[in-house]
Design brief:
seven-stranded antiparallel sheet; Beta-lactamase; alpha+beta; 371 residues; three-stranded antiparallel sheet; 28% helix
Length: 371
């Protein structure tokens, strides 16, 4: 057992024990958080920021959460839809006319958010540096033909999700996804989560640590979702050293380059679990939250190679929804229980070599507090 700091309501002590157990085994540093009814009931952290275990993980430590960022990007689209500024059933080309090229005139906004748009791959081999050029990537996607008839099949859009949803948000709101999220979500909630990170926060960022026995050249060939399923190569060889670089932090790659901790991840996503509000701040109506858990597609995911249920922006797992990131971060929301659980860490695990049930251990511990 390892010392864990922070706040934990008595009925959720199992979460503290679970995090301490993880820190005593596979984890180096990590945080866990639970919100119920839009209010924090667990806010815990512990361990270390470095592999030598000399620098402590602090309350305001930030770390890259990779594809857990998709949950935040999806929320931005749902907010615009709830305001009436974005129609989930409208063609993407209604907001982004160039997108209609190459047979995409019938791709709907909801297709993009549910990974059924037929654009799982970037337009050709792409270097990490090219991912930082927003105009180039989005122009390439606008010109690309879909890989299947939109809406008829699903295939996880590992990187393209963020570019297409982000460009829709930019066309509708006039702001880049990161700025929209900061203005309309993070600031009102007081949530310490960032899509693209400014220099002033660098001193709080801890690097992601490659899985045991692997190096910083470990690539994102198989990041994991909330159910533990595998991803295929997203079209660019992204290494641990890339996601730890200053250039990655400054860029906006809304599918994968969010920075936060469990507290901020849980707080933001609790808005959806709590029917539109958290901490007394309302971001959207109760009805505006429902697409987050209403199934759009069920069946075989062509990219993940596994059965999946996709909603408008999220993976659906039974009565819960959410998604996780490469290496192990995770957020799960249960609208019936009005509960959101988040787990964020720096030590990555390679599922080819080792089972990774860390996030689900935290989730199950949280459910024990509801009994």
């Amino acid at each position: 057992m390892t010392d864990v700091k922070g706040m934990c309501a008595p009925r959720f002590e199992a979460v503290r024990a679970a995090l301490a157990d993880l820190l005593g085994k596979d984890d180096v540093g990590a945080s866990a958080a639970v919100c119920v009814d839009g209010e924090p009931v667990v806010d815990l952290w512990g361990g270390y920021a470095d592999p030598d275990r000399t620098v402590g993980w602090e309350r305001d430590t930030l770390v890259g959460v990779n594809s857990t960022t998709k949950n935040m990007t999806a929320l931005c689209a749902l907010i615009l839809a709830d305001r009436g500024d974005l129609d989930l059933y409208a063609p993407v080309a209604a907001y982004w006319p160039e997108f209609a090229a190459a047979g995409k005139e019938n791709v709907l906004v909801r297709h993009v958010l549910s990974h059924t748009a037929g654009l799982p791959d970037l337009p050709g081999p792409t270097t990490v540096e090219e991912l930082y050029d927003w105009e180039s990537v989005t122009s390439g996607l606008a010109a690309q033909a879909p890989a299947w008839e939109p809406g008829t099949a699903a295939g996880y859009h590992a990187l393209t999700f963020g570019y297409v949803v982000g460009e829709i948000v930019r066309r509708v709101s006039g702001r880049r996804l990161g700025e929209f999220f900061a203005d309309e979500v993070a600031e009102p909630l007081g949530a310490d989560f960032h899509i693209g990170l400014s220099l002033e926060h660098d001193h709080r960022v801890v690097p992601l640590l490659p899985p045991p026995s692997l190096t910083d050249d470990y690539t994102a060939g198989a990041p994991l979702g909330a159910d533990g399923t595998r991803r295929a190569n997203p079209g660019a060889e992204i290494r641990v050293r890339d996601v730890n670089s200053p250039a990655w932090r400054r860029a906006q790659i809304p599918a994968v380059n969010g920075f936060g901790n469990a507290r901020s991840v849980a707080l933001v996503q609790s808005v959806l679990a709590n029917r539109g509000s958290a901490g007394g701040v309302r971001l959207l109506s109760p009805q505006g939250c429902e697409p987050a858990w209403q199934e759009v597609f069920r069946g075989h995911d062509r990219v993940l190679g596994t059965p999946m249920s996709w909603t408008v922006g999220f993976g659906r797992f039974g009565d819960t929804f959410g998604w996780g990131g490469w290496g192990g971060s995770l957020v799960v929301s249960d609208p019936g229980a009005r509960m959101t659980v988040a787990y964020v860490m720096n030590r990555m695990i390679d599922r080819d070599r080792q089972e990774d049930d860390r996030g689900m251990n935290i989730v199950m511990a949280a459910y024990s507090g509801l009994l």
